[in-house]
Amino acid sequence: DTPNPIRIVQIQKREPVKRLFPVFQKFEPHLRIVPVLNTPELENPYLAVWRVTNNIDGDRDLYISGKMVVIDGTNKSREIDNFPREWPPDVNPTPSVLEKLRELGLVDLPEEFLKKWHLL
Fold first, then answer.
1. CB count, 10 Å around CB of 62?
2. What is the secondary structure of 14-77 as a DSSP string?
3. Are strands 33-37 and 62-65 parallel, antiparallel or unpaired?
4. Which of 19, 48, 94, 107 is the Cys-Cys partner for 41 at CB 3.0 to 4.6 Å?
């Protein structure tokens, strides 16, 4: 019941997202914004938005058909995307770093918080 329905799509990336664009075009009457991810953030809207906005280049990763926009928010690679350099890995603190920060009294984060934000 919205004029701009959003549907996040999670894929196992085996080919460039632009090759999947014709499949998405079939659903254009029902969709407007289609972010595509190849990481498991679907249950965490904050991380899904973070992933999409940090993994796109406006010149390379937007595909537009009529009123629909498909956003390639996937990690890029040389093999699949012909991306010229290694895609940077996620940077998360190790459990030992988090424990040290707790010992020093610098952070007091509950386990549930750390799991929710993928810090563990």
1. 12
2. SS-HHHHHHHHHTTTTT-SEEEEESSS-TT-HHHHHHHHHHS--TTTSEEEETTEEEEE-SPP-
3. unpaired
4. 48
State both tokens at 114. 């750390």
Residue-wise pLDDT tens digits, 80-116: 998 888 877 776 777 788 888 888 888 787 888 777 7
Cβ contacts of 93 within 8 Å, gap of 6 or more: 101, 119
Q: Which two tokens stand for residue 83?
A: 């991306």
> Tens of pLDDT along 9-20?
999 999 999 999
Tell me the pTM: 0.75
In angstroms, the Cα distances linking 34 to 46, 57, 58, 112 are 16, 15, 14, 30
**Residues 39-55 as b or e (16 or more Cβ within 10 Å = b):** bebeeeeebbeebbeeb
